[in-house]
Each structure stands twice: as structure tokens, then as C-alpha cells.
Amino acid sequence: MAKPSKSQVQAAISAIIEREQREGVASPILHINESNRAWIRRNLRKHLDPVFSEMGLNKDKLEQVVTRHQDEVRHYLKKQESKTAKRL
Amino acid sequence: MTLTKSYGKAWANRQAAIKQLTQGPFVSAPLILDRPNSIFVYPSAMLVEDHIESGNSWAKLIWEDSQDVQYKETSVRFFFAWTNPFDYLVVINVSADLVVRGQCTLTAFPGLLFGGWTSLFVTTQLKVHLSGVAIGGHDQEQAIAGLDADTWGSIFGGDKSSTSEDVFATANLSLKQVLIGVQQLVIIETSMIAAYHIENGTVSLIFAKDHPFVACPAVMIDVLAPPP
Hints:
The complex is a heterodimer. In chain A, about 85% of the residues lie in helices and about 0% in strands. By secondary structure, chain A is mainly alpha-helical. Chain A folds into two domains: about 25-55; about 60-90. In chain B, strands 1, 3, 4, 6, 10, 12, 13 and 14 form an eight-stranded antiparallel sheet that branches. The longest helix of chain B has 20 residues, at about 5-20. Chain B has one helix spanning about 5-20, and strands at about 25-35, 40, 45-50, 60-65, 70-85, 90-110, 115-130, 135, 140-150, 160-180, 185-200, 200-205, 215, 220-225. Chains A and B meet through helix 1, helix 2 and helix 3 of A and strand 2, strand 5, strand 7 and strand 11 of B.
């Protein structure tokens, strides 16, 4: 058998890359563990979401409150900048 | 192919290699593959620059992702080729150092009720490919880094959360007792894999500031064969 040519080596490497793109490179255990962790979080949300709705939580209103709070924090920090600069 | 099936094939090869070694005296001849035949980066957009040179082959990488994803793999792989030049079976021991130097940063943003979560695992592997069969890899994956960024929802006081880790490590990868057929082509693969999960957050990988970035200088092969 002759020594494989450059193109034969490259073809073998390409076949490996193609197979690994299909099957994944990392251990499937990593994928399984990550999927399990994601499922656990999703499951808690699935149960909490209707509870929040039942409690009469108005998401739009909450969103407005949080946005307002964040705006006020930004405004406050901006105002503090000059005071902080003076003290330091 | 499942992990169990691929491990089964690798195990069968190892059994045959040990049997081969017990059949008589053998001599050991070390040889070095000082440059890879190719470097493959996935996704390709992660590659900034790569370089192939005797004892100095590396890849510079930068990758940022903010798309929600349950599981995603990115990788840089170095492929070395060797052919058994003999008219008889040989057993090889393979080893390689993979050097990784860079920064990984994760961020999680708060939603209204629920917070974001991002996680990342960086691992290294050595595989020997023989006619479509991969030996090694999954079963001897070495962890380099593992990070999480997690936060609460805004109404519970959740704020942006970031975590960053400098990675500078040399993974000593090795695979022992692999049976190689007569004049068989062997592809040796060393790789760094970064696998992550994003749920309202970002992942940033920067392996492009300090040499050697992600590098595989060489692969050592110990050829165990009958004495001439």
C-alpha cells in the first residue's frame, strides 16, 4: 500500500469533522447534565408563572415599576458622581 | 454513535493491542509529529488567526454570543496524520500537550420575574481516529474551566451578574495501547471545547491576547513493534 496522499489525508480529516459536527465533540454527559439543569429551571418557572398570575400580578405594571426604579437609580448615580469625585 | 458503542470499539482495540504486545518481545521507538496537517475551528467566525509551524502551531480565537441556547459547542481542533510504515501490526502510545491561554466571561441579565443564567465548560480531548473509529476523547476528557453566572428577577432585587476567569493551563493528554493495522492511516486529534448554555445572558471567549492562545506544539508517538 502506498503512503496516503495529502488529499487522502485531508479527505479523512474532513470525514471526521463532518461526523463530529453531527454527533458533537464534547462528552454527551456534559450535554445531558446541562439539559437537566435547564429543565429543572424551566419546570420551576412553569409552576410559578400561573401562581404569579393567580396572585393578580400585573406584569405590565410591574415592568413599569422596575423601569421607573432603574431610571431613578441611574439618575441618582449620575447626581452622586460629582459628590463622589469631590470626596475622593 | 453512543458513548457506550464508541467506548466498546476502543476497548476492543485496546484488548487487541495488549494481546499483540504479549505475543513476544518488542522495541519502543519514539517519534514526533511537529506540526498539524490542519487546524479546524467551529464556528469558523470564532477564528481570528491560525498558524502552523514546527513546534509552534496555534489558533487565536474570539467569540461572543448572546442568543438564548440550551446547549452549544464551540471547538478548536488540531489534526495530525501518521501512517504505519511497516508491513506488520504495531501498538502506539500517543501523548500531546494542549496549551490554552485566554479569558472567559459570562453575564446574566435579570428578567422581570426570573433571572438569567449562563454556564460554560471548557474541556480538552485527545482522540485517535482509525478508519472511521474514534478512540479516546469522551471517556478521558479533561476539564480546564467551569463557570456560571446567575441572577434573580428584577422584582426580587436581581441585577446584572458577571463572572470572569483567566485560563492558562497545559493539558497533558495521552492515550495508551492503540493497535494500528499494516500501513494504516492514523489521524490524531487534540481539541479544546467550550460548551455553554445561555438564558438571557452573554458568553465571551477571548483566546487572542497572549501567546500561545490555543496551541498544540506537537504530538509524541511511541511505536511499540517487534524487534527488527
